[in-house]
Amino acid sequence: MKFLPKHFSVPCGDTVSVVFYDDIHTFIVVDNNYVEPSLVCLYSFHKHNPDFVVTIYGLDFCEEDIDNYQQHLHDLGITTYKVESISTAGMNFDYKWNIFYSDIINIMSAKFKIMENIEKEKYILYFDTDTIFTDSIKPMFMDLHQRELLGVRYTENKPEINCGIFLAANLHVKYYTMYLDFFNQNRLKYFNIDEMFLSEVYEHHIVYLPKEYNTHGFITIEHPRMIHYIGSVKPFMHKNLSNFQCCTPQRYADEWYKVYYKIKNRLNASEDFDKQVAETKTYIENLGNRSLLRPLENTIDKIFCAGVKCGVNVLSAIVKHLIDKYNKAGEH
Ligand SMILES: [Mn+2]
What we know:
The protein is an alpha/beta fold. It contains 8 helices and 11 strands. Helix 1 crosses helix 6 (250-264), helix 3 (105-116) packs antiparallel against helix 4 and helix 6 (250-264) packs across helix 7 (273-285). It is globular. Residues 128, 130, 164, 228, 230 line the site of manganese (II) ion (MN).
């Protein structure tokens, strides 16, 4: 099927309806730690998908943060965007037990707060900022049906999708309110709680997209349209700080270095890709103890604190259990 300039033809049941770019609320969520990777992501997205208007929600962004972000986008020639602030007030989730998510829990939660407030007739297109796009994502719209959620599987044999990118019909339900309940009930049960939540909300009406739309380490393919650097090790982190295995193969990390190099050098990059990759890696390594974009040592602190906290909790639970047992025994 051929695309018309400004809209997609979408099969909905037996009928065919049309979704315009304006019908899709495309958004990302960033915090001040994630400005640079988000620019890499947006630059690559814009290059291959120039017709989409992306709303960037900055967590607790002040006016100055918004101005700075807009200036970055302007410098990169990205014109189709909106920058807004979203408050994290009230988002005090206790997620410290989960070492990998403790510092992105608010980003995970904010997307549902945003979805709750999107006009009901719109479709939702969300993507993470630890991603880059290497091709157009237009073809993914071909499978969009009402009430459905489209994404790439979390792993080959799990029913839920990986939340790095998803396209969803807006059910105009209270996403955030429902998420709070789901979170409180399941926070110790699931590692990928936002993905499990979406799976439940859409009642498993999920259309699985081909791997090329979210190549994320567990799911790889030779020619991706989007690469997702999942896990706690990202290309933009100082590698010496990390003892973790990167989930995403090195050749995909090189793609990220190339785009970052281009942005850093004001888009006047040479065409010597090996040089770009090597120079960018050296640049990141030379930043010292802090990763380029997200302070990993901070994450390690959190892991340590979480470990200590879990240890204390486990210990106090055992002590409490023993005291209860002792008291009960005394009653008899
Ligand atoms: Mn991600």
